[in-house]
Amino acid sequence: MKSDTVIETIEVAALTIGMHIHLDGGWMSHPFPRSSFKISSLEQIATLRSLGLQRVRWSPQDSDISHSTSRWDTFGLTGVAGAVRVTPPVASDTPDPAPDSAAEASSIVAAPTPQDIHRAALAAQRAALAVCEREFADASRVARQVFEGIAAQPVAARHRAQALTRQLVDQMIGNQELCIRLLTESAGDKVSAHGLNVSVISLLMGRNFNLSEAEMLDLGVGAMLHDIGKAEVPERLRHREEHFGAAEHKIYETHVALGIAQARRMELAPGASLVIAQHHEHIDGSGFPLKLQSDRTTVPSRIVSLVNRYDNLCNPANPGKAITPHEAVALMFAQGRNKYDPAILGAFIKMMGVYPAGSVVQLTDDRYALVVGVNASRPLKPKVLVHEAGVPRDEALVLDLETVSGLGIRRSLKPLALPARTLDYLSPRPRVSYFFEPTQDGGALA
Known about the structure:
Elements: E1 8-11, E2 20-22, E3 36-38, H1 42-50, E4 55-58, H2 71-74, E5 77-80, E6 83-86, H3 102-106, H4 114-149, H5 154-173, E7 178-182, H6 190-208, H7 213-224, H8 246-266, H9 270-278, H10 299-314, H11 325-335, H12 342-352, E8 360-363, E9 368-375, E10 378-386, E11 398-400, E12 409-413, H13 420-426, E13 434-438
Antiparallel strand pairs: 1-4, 2-3, 2-4, 5-6, 7-9, 7-13, 8-9, 8-12, 9-10, 10-11
Helix pairs in contact: 1-4, 4-5, 4-6, 5-6, 5-7, 6-7, 6-10, 7-9, 7-10, 8-9, 9-10, 10-11
């Protein structure tokens, strides 16, 4: 790029093909291979809109176009993640002037067809999911480096865990409302999945309780590393099983003490170390290793204790014993009210919703759907992928129930209770992984 190039800013809604743009942000801020590039497709524009940016920088001299009206905005078509809105043209008493030349006439763009609208909405949804999964994959890779480096370089592993937690906290604090997204089975890896799942959901909970920045960092690091002691426990005893005898239970429970010792080697902050020490304690004193009651445990520890249980119910070591997210929430409410802080349990259910992402449901119009996203501030109307018999799955739009009048969820179902074609279409994930993204205004087309 030439040194005398003028850099201007432009609204994302006004972007069009041919503009040379410059993106700001860190390592998880956008999915493009370069931060400075020339827009070459409508899909790139949809991706940019899905990032939640209001304006971006661009270079008119390096662009193939000098005006700022895109094809979609000419007709009021605004594509966001999971949303398309079409606004009718404003009536005018002055007729449009006739084109002065054939070239000018050829520049008139035809109004978008329903197929155009569908493709734009689908591209925006795919772009939003791709960004979310890329961020989760990046975070998962760093978390794996943390776990793999603890034994040989404990202090360096701590630095990585703190840096990742800082990135997650900064992203959460920078957005007013967040959507909890269900990710595809291929996102991330199993080595880091549990620790990262517990860390992400725990941080979302901490955000709801307005924890201080220092408390959030201790919460995130402690949640990510809560099970580090299991690396020194025999593999067959790392997950509690019903058939365990007294000796096996005792060995399993040593992972807490082993985790505390590892925390010392990592030189973790006291708050993070307490999360590791107390993540199996219960408010009624029935937990381990010290049978502490709530007045002797920290708020971050009580959050992680609950979230750890939820993830273990949804993602047990034996996948055959997994229950649905809806069943997990119902079970914890029915059986966990004496074990978990009532305020934390209530806030958890309010944040995740009665039908958390990953739940299979039947809508009030009898259609079947998979919950794929929940607004953490307004969880009663989640985003769902609906089984539409005449629409291929890879072309199905996600439906935002907040925007559809008169449509809701009738009941939750076990995946195996679905008709065979619906089960194949919705493909509920054997492993439930969550991440978060800024909530966008608007909703998908019904």
